[in-house]
Amino acid sequence: MNLPVIFDLALGLVFTYLILSLLASEIQELIATVLQWRAEHLKKSVEIFLAGDVLDSEDQNVIELANNIYSHPLVKNINQEAKGFLVTLPRRLTWGIGSLYRSVKTARPGGDQEETIFGERKRSGPSYIPSEIFATTLMETLQLPTLVQTLTESRLEKFKNAQLAKIEQVLVELQQQANEDEPSAPFINTMFQQYAETQADFEQITWNFQNQKADLKTSVTRLAESLDRYIEVFQTEMPKQDVFDKALRKIKFVKKDIFADIEQAILSGGLRPNLNEVVESVRRDSAIYNEIKEAVKDKESATHQGFINIAESIDLIEKLPKSVVENLTVLGKRAQSRIQTTEEGIHTLQKEIERTFDSSMERASGVYKRNAKGVAIMLGLSLAIIANADAFHMISRLSKDSALRETITNNAGEILLKNQNNQAFANPNSQGEPDNSATLDVIREQADRALDNVALPIGWSDVNLNQQIAWTPNKNQSFPFLRILYMIPGWIFSGIAIGMGAPFWFDLLGKFVNVRNVGRRPASYSRSQVDNDENVGG
Known about the structure:
Butyryl-CoA Dehydrogenase, subunit A, domain 3, 23 helices
């Protein structure tokens, strides 16, 4: 057997396995779509990410948190579905098959028999979630921005009351000291009235912050401006007496000590929670969490306006597994060193969640690919048996049948040539080299046309069985079942080969064809030349 024959034989095997691999990939894709393997794998990967490991991912509270994330509008929008009876009819069929497949599986912890892996009896889920959407959804599900807002509102309320109490204390002491001085009574009454107006002004400022009409720095600045107005009225109206000068100095000291630097006032008052406090807000045994709960329980406080939303978040936090809290704590510590303000901290924490989620999904993608490869090999073995693709019989047929080798090699070259031309005309900078990114749909279409001219040495036809095991139905003898044992090694070899996938065999096909033809078509080869060659060849 000379070298050209060996090349043609190898090319025939590669072409055969390319055809069978295309069929296997089509079947595997159909199964994965109907049973929603990608979506199901993604959901379980999200649960593992939240829990931190596989064992804790089966915790009922982890599953509930993941279901809440999947119920978020941002995630729901990813999994958009068509509308209309006829349009959704194929989807309903796949949903039914998928539901039947999942019904035989073990029920999830805490879920009823009718609940799917996607939660809330959902029939499908997204196959991909962008990291930015996941991070935003997780933080909104845990109500972290709302918890921070509630904590800041509570502290601003205490800060406001503390400053008002200092001014009130100065007025009370002034009233006691000037009680016997009748001329000073109108001034003191005026300042108490002005204090009431300042108090109302403070209340309005905090109300604006609670309703997100002003940010924290603006709110504290307005508190300082309101206190300045009170000092100006006090200084303008006060009698020329030492006792009033002393009271004025006390009020000015309060203003200077607290509001001389707005950022310093925010820091010293603890008005802006740092990132560690943000993360601690989801730890049930932390002082920050208890502070938020006390703020919500105070029905007289302004923070009670958001009671309903915060109560839902507190209820969810009460159920958070320890592993989820620990993961958030670790992410918070990573982000803390890179931030200056709470606003930056929330944004940095979100980016940290995005990076960690991307890394986790890369590992999950690797797991899915390994599982898919295992399924591909099992599917390849099944297809090899069903199609009777005995590798050693194919080698024998190809080595003896020169006409079959010639037909296969011509059609294999035609598939590759057409694909190269399509690639070259789509990309003028291409050198006519096969592109591994060529879609399987294009290759499949070309392979279907090629099969019209090729009778592959596979199948359970009478001719093939006669050549393979020397038996046909016309012979007056029973089927030689023992001879099937000789076919098993060839089936196993073919099953593994089919499991390698169509892209592998198409790439290998291109290399064999290029070596056999001793070079590629030059880049300057135009479409008209291709047509002329085809016409001449015809």
